[in-house]
């Protein structure tokens, strides 16, 4: 019997057949026959069931490699600035390479940990992230940069607790929804406790301040509530409350209000040399890049015109040096990565692994949402926010948590494949 041929045209029948096979697995039946990964619609192309998702790994490696090259290009002239006079031209290149090496080791270790362990420890990891968000606010403990206190000095790198909070909220919200599945229609039992947890994180992040990280974390939490099956009216009410909170933050903060005005009219002389300075120079960089760019290393905006060129505005340097084609490639790369993460999450849920599926989809929202915000800020589509581009921008804790999160996604995919072959996760 050609199982794959039967599987392709009848997805509903496949689901029923798979459920029956899994149901008989514990009754001493033979192991499930090897089947191919049609869940999520791989455009009719079967994927290898054994091993690991090589396409996801290669896309990740390509983004890391591009980021390493562009971080060097964007930072090579920084020692000309008195602020960075003690650094060598290759300082940021060496640091980024070290961050990637350490993060790859951490990812390989993470890949060995079963998802059941993460489900068990999800509430404790969330509590740890809250504790670190409190510690970073303590004077002389947390490190402040440009008026923001967001980092804990750990010797080899400065760790940003908000990066851990992004992963921990995906785990905690997924664990929470699994535990509250039978009361998900009740607002006070299902939504209210999660809203309080999110509110605590929001207060701590806004005290740093780091509104960008809070926006990503809130999006992850709300997405998992929605995907977990929370009542639609309750979900819309939660979104409305959160949007209202963001509006109030802007209304009652002169600094944030000025950023919105600068975003709406960046070329206004009142803003061009002030709140809109980064945005205007980012747009100039994209304009100079045109279709194929000025050439690698040929950016002018990185020569002390565009602040944070190696972190928040790395995409603008990519646009100036490598052009529209490279920017489009980065956009497509993140789109594919986010979509693939969601497919793996849907596969897990189809196999009745609700925690794993919701957690992975939360990670997908994190990667997709943060990359969208960063790209939107660089292109002037969104107001300026201090968010890096995952996998590309300079930063130790960002790269570390990005690769750990992707290792968890790969682990879920591995366990999915084992279950589909008739083994145990």
From TrEMBL:
The gene is ftsW. Belongs to the SEDS family. FtsW subfamily. Keywords: Cell cycle, Cell division, Cell inner membrane, Cell membrane, Cell shape, Cell wall biogenesis/degradation, Glycosyltransferase, Membrane, Peptidoglycan synthesis, Transferase, Transmembrane, Transmembrane helix. Pathway: Cell wall biogenesis; peptidoglycan biosynthesis. Peptidoglycan polymerase that is essential for cell division. HAMAP family: PGT_FtsW_proteobact. It is a multi-pass membrane protein. This is Probable peptidoglycan glycosyltransferase FtsW. InterPro entries: FtsW, FtsW/RodA. GO terms for biological process: cell wall organization; FtsZ-dependent cytokinesis; peptidoglycan biosynthetic process; regulation of cell shape. It is found in: Cell inner membrane; Cell membrane. It is an enzyme of class 2 (transferase). One of its GO terms (cellular component) is cell division site. Its main location: membrane. It comes from Ideonella aquatica.
